[in-house]
Design brief:
By secondary structure, the chain is mostly helical. It has one domain. The chain is 86% helix and 0% strand. The chain is built from 6 helices and no strands. The longest helix is centred in the last third of the chain and has 44 residues, at 160-203. The termini are far apart.
């Protein structure tokens, strides 16, 4: 029981720091969206509107859901591979922190831009089409980051046999995260386009 409490206490501070970085990223992203120069905002708003109006073309031969899910998965695979590589370096906590900060920034920027573009109506879109997959992805990245930080901290003190076992654990955790991440990719490729199609008349009139 004492060992369990010690483990919880050990990961408590990284968890709090990562949550703080995520919130900081959301705040910074929202701030950047609000104070974006007008010319850049016009370009982004035009891009968003084009995507909303062309949502009914998502399932044509040109843009297939299978193609999108493969592209999304490949991008996330690269991210997790970089995070796994960081586990073998002394900068693992900082690298994971930057990843979480960036993910929070993306969520904050996207949400704030949509709210400016669609006003209060955009809140429903954010709750249905932006938050679900991003909340799952953030939870997966947070879980992996905590394991990577723990792995990095004990790596140098481990015996060769323990180090090999820990490396196998790391690879297993990364594989589990990638499998869970398929849920995110499925939502992005199959569910979100349908929500955009259903809500486009409500969002933009």
């Amino acid at each position: 029981m004492k060992e369990k409490f010690a483990e919880i206490k050990e990961i408590k501070y990284p968890v709090l720091i990562f949550i703080g970085l995520m919130l900081l990223g959301v705040i910074l992203g929202s701030f950047c969206a609000v104070y974006l120069p007008q010319n850049q905002r016009d370009v982004l708003e035009s891009y968003v509107l084009d995507n909303i109006y062309s949502a009914d073309k998502y399932d044509t031969a040109q843009i297939e859901s299978k193609e999108r899910i493969g592209r999304y998965f490949l991008n996330d695979l690269k991210l997790y591979a970089i995070m796994a590589a960081l586990a073998f370096t002394v900068v693992a906590p900082y690298g994971c922190g930057l990843v979480i900060l960036y993910q929070g920034f993306t969520i904050g920027f996207t949400s704030a831009l949509l709210l400016q573009l669609t006003m209060a109506k955009g809140m429903l879109f954010i709750l249905l089409a932006v938050m679900p997959q991003n909340a799952i992805r953030m939870a997966i990245i947070m879980f992996l980051s905590i394991f990577i930080v723990k792995f990095s901290s004990v790596r140098k003190q481990s015996t060769p046999q323990a180090s090999k076992a820990n490396t196998m654990k790391l690879l297993t955790i990364v594989a589990i995260c990638l499998i869970l991440n398929l849920i995110v990719n499925f939502i992005e490729a199959y569910v979100t386009p349908g929500i955009v199609t259903a809500l486009k008349g409500y969002l933009i009139r």
